[in-house]
UniProtKB/TrEMBL annotation:
Gene3D superfamilies: GntR ligand-binding domain-like, Winged helix-like DNA-binding domain superfamily/Winged helix DNA-binding domain. This is GntR family transcriptional regulator. Keywords: DNA-binding, Transcription, Transcription regulation. PANTHER family: GNTR FAMILY REGULATORY PROTEIN (PTHR43537:SF45), TRANSCRIPTIONAL REGULATOR, GNTR FAMILY (PTHR43537). It comes from Almyronema epifaneia S1. Residues 12-79 form the HTH gntR-type domain.
Length: 231
């Protein structure tokens, strides 16, 4: 049986609920990269007809969270090493703008939330085994970067980053299952936060660039080891 995040509540259209349930299950790792999505199993678990399921799967294909394999079966998307490079390059362009604007626009409350993310990452690092913390670290990393984008005050930027972050979540799920240390970003997040708190755009841009470059190298190396994908 395909594991899904939740059963449906009859408050939105069946398509919307089916889409949200599937998307949540993918981004939380309950449906892993490469898992086959079988309409009959999904219909049985969610107690809906196959029509809203097909509509939801089409939407997820448009978002590149679901892909068709060589046999035409729908599966949760996987990310190759070369795709990972492209994703990180997009993030680099968007997040340098994000931290620069956050230096001038972040509110005291938003700075407190960023500081809390840094503190939580430090606390998690003291726990063991690290292999049990992958999902928590992923959620914390996402929250930190999303908070920076929100702190920029630029909603268009937030929307663009959301599209990249969804695909990035698949990528990080692939790599952290094998090596949770791929998310060893405490010092890098601390440097970014300090630059934003000090309203220093030049240092913030340098810090986010260094962080994403190092993260890209860790993730691409891990992907190459898992899948043997050439760059």
């Amino acid at each position: 049986m395909v594991p899904l995040a939740k059963s449906l509540q009859r408050r939105k259209s069946l398509y919307e609920q089916t889409y949200e349930a599937l998307r949540q299950s993918i981004l939380e790792g309950m449906l892993a990269p490469g898992d086959r999505l079988i309409e009959t199993q999904i219909a049985q678990q969610l107690q809906v007809s196959r029509t809203p399921i097909r509509e939801a799967l089409r939407q997820l294909q448009q978002e590149e969270l679901v892909t068709a394999d060589a046999n035409g079966w729908l599966r949760v998307a996987t990310v190759s090493a070369s795709e990972a490079v492209h994703l990180y390059n997009c993030r680099m362009a968007l997040e340098t703008l994000s931290v620069s604007e956050a230096c001038n626009q972040a509110t005291p409350t938003q700075l407190e939330q960023l500081a809390l993310c840094v503190a939580e990452a430090e606390a998690l690092a003291q726990r063991s085994p690290q292999s049990d913390l992958g999902q928590q670290l992923l959620a914390l990393d996402y929250r930190f970067h999303h908070l920076i984008a929100e702190s920029s005050g630029n909603q268009c930027l937030v929307s663009l980053l959301e599209q990249v972050f969804s695909k990035m979540m698949l990528l990080r799920l692939q790599t952290t299952r094998q090596n949770p240390n791929v998310l060893e970003v405490r010092k890098e997040h601390q440097d970014i936060y300090q630059a934003i708190a000090q309203q220093d755009p030049e240092t913030a841009i340098a810090a986010i660039t260094s962080h994403l470059t190092a993260s890209k190298e860790r993730v691409v190396k891990e992907l190459a080891q898992i899948h043997g994908n050439p760059l």
